[in-house]
Specification:
- The protein has 11 helices and 10 strands.
- The radius of gyration is 19 Å and the shape is globular.
- Strand 7, helix 7 and strand 8 form a beta-alpha-beta unit.
- Helix 7 runs parallel beside helix 11.
- It has 289 residues and is an alpha/beta fold.
- Helix content is 40%, strand content 21%.
- 36% of the residues are buried.
- The strands form 2 sheets. A 6-stranded mixed sheet has the order 6-7-8-3-9-10, with helices on both faces. A 4-stranded antiparallel sheet has the order 2-1-4-5, with helices on one face.
- It folds into 2 domains: 194 residues, Rossmann fold (3-Layer(aba) Sandwich), CATH 3.40.50; 71 residues, no CATH class.
- The structure holds adenosine-5'-triphosphate (ATP) and magnesium ion (MG).
- The site of magnesium ion (MG) has 2 residues, from helix 1.
- The site of adenosine-5'-triphosphate has 11 residues, from helix 1.
Length: 289
Amino acid sequence: MSAPDTVSVGAQGTDAPLLEVRNLVVRYGRNGPAAVDDVSFAIARGETLGLVGESGSGKTTIGRAILGLQPVSDGQILFEGREITRASVAERRALQGDLRAVFQDPFSSLNPRRVIGDALTEPLRVAGVAREERERRANEVLASVGLPAGSYDRYPRQFSGGQRQRIAIARALVTDPRLVVCDEAVSALDLSTQAQVLNLLAELRAGADLGYLFIAHDMAVVEFLAQRVVVLHRGKVMEQGATVDVIRSPQSEYTRVLMAASPVPDPDEQARRREVWQRLRAQAKAAAG
Ligand SMILES: Nc1ncnc2c1ncn2[C@@H]1O[C@H](COP(=O)(O)OP(=O)(O)OP(=O)(O)O)[C@@H](O)[C@H]1O
Ligand SMILES: [Mg+2]
């Protein structure tokens, strides 16, 4: 957005990672077992980190801890070098433009009685942006995620599932954030819509200095979008590294099992799926150059 700020190099250091999670522990209940157990990783500016693991491995818990929606039992979370582990309500509010989220089911987080424009301008209003500029920006973002003109004045029920996920993405991006936590953001969509939304996320990232924590149980989805991946099992990191390396030569047996686990038992569906992914990858390659 702005030119590199050389003046502020020092105390916080502009070379700090975008996000750093250090030895994170999260327990549900005071003496409950650790749902997240000593997890550490970092996300660089503009990087997409995939977080994969089977159901119950702690992915959502980590995302919620980063967003301040889940209390942390131990460890630290740093955003652009600043500790936010136990940020106050006021500190979280100051962060809300920079750190955004897209969840699996956008319908549940959109107020059915309010038009889309309201959902999009709300975070800008909180940030003190003037009304005219709020409306201009909301319409700009709606167009950038491929929604038809006039979407601003329509209600959530007037959109398809794929369109609602685009609205959720628009709402995340409207504040021009630094990091977006995407928790199973495409999992509920059918395959071709999934491919469209993934391509959209990749496109939106290209122009901006935008990082993603991309949570998914599907390795193929992560492979498409993430430069690096963290593999989680029962709250612990099994391995992490460049996505290509982890996929080519997984270091842990668990990763191998995770990758081999066919998400669809039907071989025809599996073949169709493989075809879609190959097409998607070819498209991405062509777009890249
Ligand atoms: N509110 C809660 N109270 C108690 N335990 C919880 C709560 N939320 C999650 N857990 C437990 O914490 C562990 C991690 O759950 P989490 O939702 O983070 O997993 P996940 O990897 O996101 O799974 P999924 O792929 O199914 O979304 C699980 O054992 C789960 O049962
Ligand atoms: Mg989850």
